User: Fold these one by one.
Assistant:
Number 1:
Amino acid sequence: MSPTISAEELRLRYRNTTAVDGLTLTLDGPGIYGLIGRNGSGKTSLMSVLAGFRRASGGRARVNGQPVFENPRILPEICLIRGGADTVEHELRNRVSDALKLAADLRPNWDADYADELVSKFGIDRTKRVVQLSTGQRSALASILGLASRAPVTLLDETYLGMDAPARYAFYDELLRDSMAHPRMLIVSSHLVDEVSPILERVVMIDQGRLLLHEDAETLRARGATVSGPADTVADFVSGRTVLNERRLGRSASAVVYGELAEADRAHARESGLELEPVPLQDLFVHLTKGENR
Ligand SMILES: Nc1ncnc2c1ncn2[C@@H]1O[C@H](COP(=O)(O)OP(=O)(O)OP(=O)(O)O)[C@@H](O)[C@H]1O
C-alpha cells in the first residue's frame, strides 16, 4: 500500500503555546520529504502527533486513512526517531547489540543484515554500552534504528545532530540509496537545508505551526534563479527584481533572484553571457521565513 499521511486542521497546544496551529496537509506516496522550518516552528511537535507520540489538541492526524493515536493497527507502520543522541537515552545502560535486538523485536520490518552493515559503516562498537558511545556515534545509532526499521512511514527528526560532516553526508547518501532500494515515506526534519536539500523530492515548509508550502523540490527551485557572470551585467539583470543573496568576487558576481523568470528573460540572460542555475533552497527558506515575509 502506498503510504499516505493526512493532517486536517491539526492543532497541538502545550500549556501556553500553540505549537501546531490548524495545519492541513496530505503527503501521498513514497519518497524523501523534507520538513523544514525555523527553530520553534513546530517540526518536532508535528512529527510527534503524526507518529502518535502525542494526542492532538484538535483536528485529525491519519496514516493510511487510520487515526494514529493509540491505534495498535497503524503504530507498527510508523517509526519516529527524535533528536539524535537523545533518542537512545533510555538505552544508555544497554549494549549496542541489545539496543539492536530490542529494535528487531519491536519493528515488524526490521532488517538485521542492513542494521549490521550500517553499524560497521558508521564504526560503532556493538559490544559497548550506549552510554560509552560518543555523541556522534549515539546519533548514528539512532539513525540506524530509523533506517533499518524499514517502516513504511519513517520520521527522522534531526537525527544527524551530533554527527560530524563526513558522517552526516554518509547518512544522507545512505538515506537516498535505501529509499530507492526500498521505497517508503521518509520524512526528514532539518534546518541544515543546504546539506539535506539535494536528496529531497518534496519540501514541506512550516512556520509558526502553520503550513507555508508543500511542493515538489524541483518546482520550488524554479521559483527563482542564481544568476552569475560579469558584475555589471548581473547588476543590470537583477535590477528591479527581488534579490535574496548577492556575492561579488573581483569583476564577477552572482545573485539569487526570487520569482519565476519568463523564457524571454532566461534567453536574454544567456545572450548577455550570464549563467543561470536553480535557486538554493536555503535562500528560499531564509527569504520565506523572514519576519516581514511571513
Ligand atoms: N513540552 C513542551 N512544553 C511547552 N512548550 C513546548 C514543548 N515542546 C515544544 N514547545 C514549544 O512549541 C513550539 C514548537 O516547538 P517544536 O519543538 O515543535 O519546534 P521545532 O520546529 O522542532 O524547533 P527546533 O528546530 O528548535 O527543534 C515552541 O514554541 C516550543 O517552545
Number 2:
Amino acid sequence: MNKFIRSVGFALKGLRYAFITQLNFRIQTSAACVVIALGLYLNINTQEWHWINLCIALVLVMELFNTGIEALVDLVSPQYNKLAGHVKDVSAAAVLIMALFTLITGIIIFAPKLLLLFHAA
Ligand SMILES: Nc1ncnc2c1ncn2[C@@H]1O[C@H](COP(=O)(O)OP(=O)(O)OP(=O)(O)O)[C@@H](O)[C@H]1O
C-alpha cells in the first residue's frame, strides 16, 4: 500500500511539473474546465459526456507524453541533432492531431446546441 501511495505521489509530481513548465498544458487544462462547464450548462447527454471525457483525457495524456519526450530529448541530445528535432516534431504532431480531433468533436456536440440557444434568444 505504501508503494502504491508513493507511486501516486510521483505521478502527482509529474502532473505538477507539466503544469508549472508547460504553457500548453495550462491552456489545455483551462479549456477542459470551460468545456465541462459548457457541458453542464447545455445539459449534454451521457454519450456526449463519454466523448468529451475521452477527448479531454487524451489531449492531456498526449501533452504529458510530449512533455516527457521533450525532457528526454533535451537530456539525451542537448546539442542540435536532426533526429532529436524529428522526435520532438513527431511528438508535437501527435498532440496536434488529438487537439484537432477534440475540436471537431466539440463542434459536433456543442455547435447545434449553441445555435439553438442563440436562435431562441
Ligand atoms: N536538440 C535539438 N536538435 C534539433 N532540433 C531541436 C532540438 N531541440 C529542439 N529542436 C527543434 O525545435 C523545436 C522546438 O523545440 P522546443 O524544445 O522548444 O519544443 P517546444 O515544443 O517549444 O517545447 P516547450 O513546449 O517546452 O516550449 C522542436 O520541435 C524541434 O524542431
